[in-house]
């Protein structure tokens, strides 16, 4: 079987798989670790925002072209809309200047509680930095992506399978996922 066939399957079924498993994900805790990593698309670096809880469970992810306050705010809104997340009590971020204003704006809009502790210490995100390795290990041999759409669809499939691998699904949902795949 050609590798392009497998890639077409990932592009086609990755988003569907992620949509189906998202409703079965186990609840996360209220200690968020947020960071971004870089993915090459058409020879230019794009930003993959990711958030995990203190146990390493993936909260959410978002591929964006820019790294600014507006994008960070969009990522936090997406993460807060997920049905498996709790409102954060503590958010650990790196020194990216976009996070703090985005969180403050969401607090003013009453999307986030005002009592959130924002930690801007570099080494608190080590768990998330280690979690980035999994994605980088799969993306690096691809030598980047040729379009933003294929990058987004591929990363959705990779993240979905990573959630399954991290045992984020209850046992019955895992069985229905196996039936879906076979």
Automatic annotation (TrEMBL):
Residues 11-182 form the Integrase catalytic domain. Transmembrane segments: none annotated. The keyword rRNA processing does not apply. One of its GO terms (molecular function) is DNA binding. GO terms for biological process: DNA integration; DNA recombination; transposition. Keywords: DNA recombination, DNA-binding, Transposition. InterPro entries: DDE_dom (IPR032874), Integrase_cat-core (IPR001584), IS_Transposase (IPR052183), RNaseH-like_sf (IPR012337), RNaseH_sf (IPR036397), Transpos_IS6 (IPR047930). It holds the Pfam family DDE_Tnp_IS240. Involved in the transposition of the insertion sequence. This is IS6 family transposase.
């Amino acid at each position: 079987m050609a590798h392009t066939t497998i890639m077409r399957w990932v592009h086609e079924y990755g988003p569907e798989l992620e949509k189906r498993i998202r409703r079965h994900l186990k609840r996360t805790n209220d200690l968020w670790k947020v960071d971004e990593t870089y993915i090459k698309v058409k020879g230019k670096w794009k930003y993959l925002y990711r958030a995990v809880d203190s146990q390493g469970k993936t909260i959410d992810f978002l591929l964006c072209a820019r790294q600014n306050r507006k994008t960070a705010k969009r990522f936090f809104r997406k993460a807060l809309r997920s049905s498996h997340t709790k409102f954060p009590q503590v958010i650990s971020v790196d020194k990216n200047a976009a996070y703090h204003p985005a969180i403050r704006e969401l607090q003013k809009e009453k999307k986030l509680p005002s009592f959130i502790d924002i930690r801007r210490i570099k080494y608190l995100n080590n768990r998330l930095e280690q979690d980035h390795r999994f994605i980088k290990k799969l993306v690096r041999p691809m030598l980047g992506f040729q379009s933003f759409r294929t990058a987004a669809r591929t990363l959705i499939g990779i993240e979905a399978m990573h959630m399954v691998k991290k045992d984020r699904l209850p046992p019955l949902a895992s069985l229905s996922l196996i039936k879906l795949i076979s």
